[in-house]
Amino acid sequence: MKTGAILLVGGMGTRLLPLTLKTPKPMLQVAGVPFTEHQIRKAASAGISEIVLATSYKSELFEPYFGDGEKFGIKIKYAVEHSALGTGGGIRNAAKLLSNCDQIVIFNGDVLSGHNLKGQIEFHQQSKADVTLYLTQVLDARPYGCVELQGDNQVKSFLEKMENPISNQINAGCYIFNQDVINQIPADQVVSVERDTFPKLLSSGAKVFGYLDNSYWLDIGTPAALVKASADLVTGVISSVATPSHTADALIFPTANIGAGCEINNGSVIEGEVVLDSNCQISGSIIGKGAKIGANCKIIDSIIAPGAQIEAGMVVLTNYLGF
């Protein structure tokens, strides 16, 4: 069976402001590469041969980096939404560009996950499902809403955010749709896959299954989460074939200039052409390309924008400077 994919990368990323003023969320650097690269390489590793990036906000920034996908081992196409169509409308719009597929994997563009994608695809086929949702368990489901399963892992209900969730299983942002299910989504209309498509499928008796995987899962929608995702990838808490090779618990680009006495650890990333003056402490942070950091600075759990300049002796704690 042929499997294609759609990556939903059209959002503005308002929770990530000011980081997203000039750069769309999926193109922000995480462990030394744009976040979207981690997802594209994951799709390629699972045997998916073609993916459509469903873009909108700053759509012109994706293709110059990813091109036709040849260097990533997957064919990449681009669908641009000129007005927001919602998740369902975006999926329907992007699916037009895919070659004939039996099933289509849909990725949310803001989730870092260690889940077994190949296993989810196999489960979908074995279950003869119409739709299979990747689910994960969280300690507190209140911010997400939850998904209730029946005995055979068939989805019983989708529940909105509530104060006392009846389940701690949440929709983790990776779905597999059979092609004919996507064809049923109204074209060129605003549709929410969560609020419109899934409930309609359940009420019509469609076979909607949940694939439960409690591997690493993180919504990277806030600056603090983005910093954590990057550090976790560098330190090996979660692995990605897109993370550049590095030693110890830091990723330092070869063109960075590191002064004497600097201590760099806890998953920090020092990008290319950074100048780090002497005796700096960089912990769990991302220092953007070309930034200049004065002597004796301490930067912890923070992001310094590309090209920014930080004066000597500054202490930066959980902050995002230069954007």
Radius of gyration over alpha carbons?
21 Å
In helices, the fraction of residues equals: 10-25%
Read across the widest sheet, the strand sequence of neighbours is: 5-4-1-6-11-8-12
Average pLDDT figure: 92
Percent of residues in β-strands: 25-35%
Total helices: the number is: 7
Q: For the report, how would you describe the main beta sheet?
A: 7 strands, mixed
Principal-axes shape call: elongated
Structural class: alpha/beta
Distance between the termini: 45 Å
As residue ranges, the low-confidence spans are none
- Kindly state the number of beta strands: 26
Overview of the molecule:
- With 323 residues, the chain is α/β, with parallel strands linked by helices.
- The protein has helices spanning 35-45, 63-66, 86-95, 117-127, 179-183, 193-203, 223-235, and strands at residues 3-9, 29-30, 33-34, 50-55, 75-80, 103-108, 111-113, 131-137, 146-149, 155-159, 169-178, 208-212, 217-219, 250-252, 257-258, 263-265, 268-270, 275-276, 281-283, 286-287, 292-293, 298-300, 303-304, 309-310, 315-317, 320-321.
- It has a seven-stranded mixed β-sheet with strand order 5-4-1-6-11-8-12, sandwiched between helices. Strands 14-17-20-23-26 form a five-stranded parallel β-sheet, with helices on one face.
- Strand 2 (29-30) and strand 3 form a beta hairpin.
- Helix 3 (86-95) crosses helix 6.
